[in-house]
Structure formats: structure tokens, C-alpha cells
Amino acid sequence: KTKLTVEDFQQLQHDEVSLNARALTAVLREVKNAPADLQPSVELISKWDCRLGKDSAAAALYEIWLPKLAPAIFKPQVPEKAWASVSRGIQPSEAIAALRTPSPQWFGKDAVVSRDALIWKTLAEAVADAKKLLGNDPAKWRWGTLHVAPFTHPLSTDAERKNLFDLSAAERGGDANTVFATGGGPGFRQSHGASFREILDVADWDRSIGTNVPGQSAQVGSKHYGDLLPLWADGKYFPLLYS
Question: Rounded CA gap, 175 and 193, in Å?
Fold first, then answer.
């Protein structure tokens, strides 16, 4: 029997693999005749391991591309006044499923041809947006540049109070649909997810560990006000000593 260790569960809690990305890249590899100017971007995503690491260029492009798919596929078939309500219930997996099996319902008579055209159009738009957000060199694109967890205090009402209360934003991997759940708000910011995690070893309580944010103390000015933030940002844990 395989025994799982504390380290195994650390990796599990920070698993950044995206099953949606795996499904989308599988579709992309099947589509032929990519426009020449998109070929580098197609290769970037097609050869990617689908881990949404904060240092990944492919993850950044994927996350910019993904939200463009559902409106491109479904919005033309929905009354304009209803789209705002309908769109909130559409999961990324549903848009990817529609691309995987192109249907006349969504793509018209020549469904495959229209599906392919939609993929290239939305990917081109995503590349253009990535260049605006991250620069013209894809080698310098990083998901963590866009995907951050801000630590803005409710009392930060002016520059002086911001300097006093706020802590540095942390770059994040993952997204809302990975085990390492770092769901995004406006502008790709993380707006929900776990601030505290623990792994308890019932065979030896002293091997238990935890991670928390932002600090051991909520007292502004204390050296412990943000002392756990660097550990949390890097997926590191501290000991939960029992004895």
C-alpha cells in the first residue's frame, strides 16, 4: 500500500494543474491551419503542461483567452437583455465542451469550419490583450504578474493609512478551477480561496503543519503583523507543535 506523507498533502493542497486547460489544449491540437502569425502562441499553449504556475507564460495566455470563449460561442444565440444573467451561469468547461464537439446549434451549418474560425479569432484577441498587459515578448509573460492576492485594509482611506495598514500583494498560481483554488475577481485578482490550511499527522501530532496569512498578530506595527505572508505566498508551512 502507498503511504501518503505530509509532503504529499502539501503538494495536493497547492495542485495547480487545470483540467479545463487540458481539455482546451486537446481541442487546440486537433484544429488545423492555424494562421501563421498565431503559430508561436499555438505552440506555447499546445506544448504546455497545463499547470497554472505563477511563472508560466502559457498560463497567462490561457487565462486571458478562456473568458473570451463563452461569449463568442453562446452570446449570439441569447437575447441581448438576457446575456448578463445567462453568462453568470456558464462554466468554462461548458464552453470547452462546445468546442470539442462543434454543433450546428452553436456554430451553424458548417460547424467545424465556424468553430475553427472562432478559436483563431478569440486566440488572436487574447494574444493582443496579453501584449497590452504583459509586453510584446511572450518569454516575459507571467501568470503571477496578473494574478495577485491584494492585502488592502478597510481603513486604508488615504496614502498615509495605506502605508500603515496595507501589505504587499502576493503573486498566485492556480485559478478558481484548480485544487489550489485561487478564484479571481476583476483584473485577475484573487478574491477568494484559503487563507489558512493545515495538515494533521495523527500518527505523530508534532509532524503537523499549517499555513496562514497575513501574520501572527493583527497589531499594526508589530513585527508579526505580516510575518506569515511570505510563507503563504510561496506555499510554505510552519510547524503546529503539539507536545
Answer: 9
| Relative orientation angle of helices 57-74 and 92-100, to the nearest 10 degrees | 80
Q: Helix/strand/coil (H, E, C) string of 47-107?
A: CCCCECCCCCHHHHHHHHHHHHHHHHHHHHHCCHHHHHHHHCCCCHHHHHHHHHCCCHHHH
**Prior bond of 214 cis (ω within 30°):** yes
Distance in angstroms (rounded) separating the CA atoms of residues 50 and 57: 11
59-104 per-position pLDDT tens digit: 999 999 999 999 999 999 999 999 999 988 899 999 999 999 999 9
Helices (H) and strands (E) in the chain, counts: 11, 5
How many CB atoms lie under 10 A from the CB of residue 121? 13
Cβ 231 vs Cβ 237: under 8 Å: yes
